[in-house]
Amino acid sequence: MTPQRVLAGVIFILGATLTLTTLTYAWRLPVDELRYSNIFLGLGLALFYLVEAQKHITDEGTDPTSVTETTDVTETTDSAATEQASTDEPPSLLDDRLTAVGGPYRRRIGTVYRRATPAICLLLAIIAIAATGYVEFHYDRLLHEARMVGWTQTDLYVGLVIIGLVTEATGRAYGKVVAGVVALSVLYASNFVGPHLPGLFRHTGMDWEQISREGAISLTGTYGFILTVGATWVAVFIMFAGMAKAFGLMEFIIRVSQEIRKVLKSGVVHIAIVSSMAMGSITGSAAANTATTGSFTIPMMQDQGIRGDFAAAIEGFASAGGQILPPVMGVAAFLMADILGVSYFVIIQAAVIPAVLFYFGAMLAAHMLVLKHGWTASETGSFDRSLLLEGIHFLVPITVLIYTLVVMRLTPLGAGFYTILTLVATMYVRNLFVDGITMNTLVATTKQTAIGLKQGAVEMAPLVGILGSLGVVINMLTQTGLTQKISAQMIALSGGVFVVLLLLAMVASILFGLGMPTPAAYILVVVLVAPAMIAFGVQEITAHMYVFYFAMLSAITPPVAISVAIGSKIAGVGFLVSCKQALRVGAPGFVIPFAFVANDSLIYWSFPETLVVSVLVFTGVGALVISMTGFDGRHVLGPPRRVGYFVLALAAMVGPFVVQVGSVVLIASLLASTYLRSAPQPQPSTD
């Protein structure tokens, strides 16, 4: 047996073990949450590093057939997305560039490092197991006695190792920018830097022993609430998504999309938005979502005749927006519920109307663009309804998920546990019914289930490092007092003007979110920005939703705009022109947060206020789309009418109630006058 096959086998066993460990914890709660989180951290980091080792071995061309059963984890990580966005070029060109910059020595060092990467990853996996094993062995002492009698030198060294491991794993999974944030937070907290900084940023500093304690070994920092929520609520949903994909959900979605394009006038556009919306909600990564769903939706849109920059913009925007879609919200819903100390159901209820507004705007913008530019699909046949029967069994676990979350109001951990059990049971019943009650069917389904258990953990593994490293960042910033200082400074800069504070919070949320996966961006901005809004009188959930939305929108905001960067690579078009179209399509998304701050009933439901305000804001979103696309469904609009729709849209979304009503009446009058006229002949547009 080759080493590659041994590695694949270890990954299989470790992955299945991690998923089964999570399900066992959800079923029996055999240990306390903090202790379980340490076990999860060790298994998750080890699995991640082993998959990284396997990936590099495969990339080097060594026995690629040995890993055919292990789905490439880069389909669901931002590292893959970053590679597609920044290094998608032939190796020869990259080598030539390295030679030009640093000569043959730099190229040789790069080659040596790539060849050594599998061995480095294997070593890091062993260190991860050893470090978390040390914490498990000394758990009771670290939790209780050490706080009174102190930590040993070995404890402190292990703490530094754990901080280093989660930071390194974050860099491999999400790129150097995110890992750099973690490293800079530690450097900022240290007594080498903190005491020497000017003004707002100055603090007394922490020595390496304090950093080790606060960052990990006192069972805080890395072991904070972010990891505990991630190891329970987040993990069970990511694992469910991985298992569903192993059972063929992604293939089913692709086939349905291909069928629907035969009968819809808008073709595949709306299907691309819906698929990206659904996958983005589960993955928690706009970049990974664009890389996976975009790899087939963007070419399908281009085949329909949609221009490449628009295809990249639509996919990038829809993938980013998936993070705000209940019930998962890119795993941020679980973090938000834990931070605010409220029911998960309360968060989901608060997020529903803003998410519907967001995707209403996206759907309408895509529809208007298709009509404006004449990109409509020709009806080539009828929809094969029998295809829906092939995937109807997937509705069973989805129904259980919704019922357990919404009706029974179980915790996400409990709901995810029952949903996964239902998925597995449904697949056994479905396969036995379709393929026949035979031993071969049982064996094949059992093998499929085992692969699903492994794949669910593999999909989760890249998140483990960043969940731990975010805890380090939060503790470092909190211990130095920076979070409190920034909140006070924002209020001072606003000069007591509420609109200015909202604009400052918007800019800060976008800047802190650039290049980060949404859960990481949310954690950072909610600690740094949200307190200033709450101090100004904004209700807590509204403030959290506000900064969360803008952190999410950083994925389509230049200069990083990671989801648009990946989409433009797939489409083979320019990045900046794709960003321009993404901002146009996504314009409502930048106003919706202001709308729910101005209209609290969109977040905190009440009757009839929520119903009335929703109608007004929906109309405003429609008018804003018309302004941004320059098309009202019948005519290409000139600048005066576009400006008029824009002003009316803002008034309908964020104005006082009387102004909202008046604006909606004017918008309705304009649209009525347009649609009562006879339809004009189609006219080409180059906008």
UniProtKB/TrEMBL annotation:
UniProt lists compositionally biased (Low complexity) regions at 65-82
The cross-references to Pfam families, in alphabetical order and at most eight, read: DctM
> Which domain of life does this protein belong to?
Archaea
Q: Which InterPro entries match?
A: DctM, TRAP_DctM-Dct_fused
Q: Where are the residues of the annotated region Disordered?
A: 60-90
The residue ranges crossing the membrane are 7-28, 34-51, 116-136, 148-166, 173-193, 223-247, 268-288, 324-345, 352-371, 391-408, 415-433, 460-478, 490-514, 520-538, 545-566, 611-631, 643-672
TRAP C4-dicarboxylate transport system permease DctM subunit domain sequence ranges: 166-605
| Keyword set, alphabetical order | Membrane, Transmembrane, Transmembrane helix
Quote the protein name from its UniProt record: TRAP transporter, 4TM/12TM fusion protein
Q: Which organism is it from?
A: Natronorubrum sediminis
